Amino acid sequence: MAVPPQMRALLHAVNALLRQRRYHAALAMLKGFRNGAVYGAKIRAPHALVMTFLFRSGSLREKLRAILQATYTHSWNLACFVFTYKGLCALQAHVQGETYQVHSFLAAFIGGLLVFGANSNINSQINMYLLSRALFALCRLGVEKGYIPEPRWDPFPLFTGLLWGLVLWLFEYHQTTLQPSLQSSMTYLYQDSNVWHDISDFLLYNKSLPSK
Predict the structure, then answer these.
(1) In which region does residue 211 sit, left (phi positive, over 0), alpha (psi from -120 to 50) or beta (all else)?
(2) Helix-strand-coil split of the chain, %, nearest 5
(3) CA 165 to each of CA 161, 168, 175, 199: distance values in angstroms, whole numbers, following the listed order
(4) CA dihedral sign, ordered 132, 133, 135, 140
């Protein structure tokens, strides 16, 4: 099917605009918003789908609404953060005439406060996800820069043992301090497996089906 001349002219004008270097910073903000929205939906939708149908009670409609709400919130927040971060980085570079490392920190600090500062379940999950990776990265950076002596042996097994020992101790004796989704997962694994009545809820189901 042939493209109408008006549409062809419009596409040509849009593509010409996208190639203009003078608008690169603003266009990068828009594409960052787009990529944040897409990525947020891609990673939240399957997670919300699994967690909702595994652990959430309610009707199918209520579950679908919860999945859509979680996906929308994650997608929107991430899109807004990328837009804000890239905009503030560009603004600082424009004001100072060049880019400095501190620009990235300041832009992300302000964006994080504005977008992810509300203490909600989704923001908490995102922040905890970033925290673990940031701590790992800082340890590696410390070794690269010589601030931390390079280990003579692989510390990962010891780290793993301490991590699992700590989280199970917290779950067994201070469960309310853990993030809600982690509590749900660990309850399913370690507490629900202590209870059964017959073969149905021992092997086929986690809990007995309600009698009719």
Answers:
(1) beta
(2) 80, 0, 20
(3) 6, 5, 14, 32
(4) positive
Instruction: Evaluate whether 48 touches 70 at the Cβ level (below 8 Å).
Output: yes
Calpha distance 184→169 (Å, rounded): 16
Helix axes 121-145, 101-116, angle to 10 degrees: 160
Per-residue pLDDT 10s for the chain (212 aa) are 677 888 888 888 888 888 888 889 999 999 999 999 999 999 999 999 988 888 788 889 999 999 999 999 999 999 999 999 999 999 999 999 999 999 999 999 999 999 999 999 899 999 999 999 999 999 999 999 999 999 899 999 999 999 999 999 999 999 999 988 889 889 989 999 998 888 888 888 888 766 65
Q: In this structure, which amino acid lies at residue 155? A: P
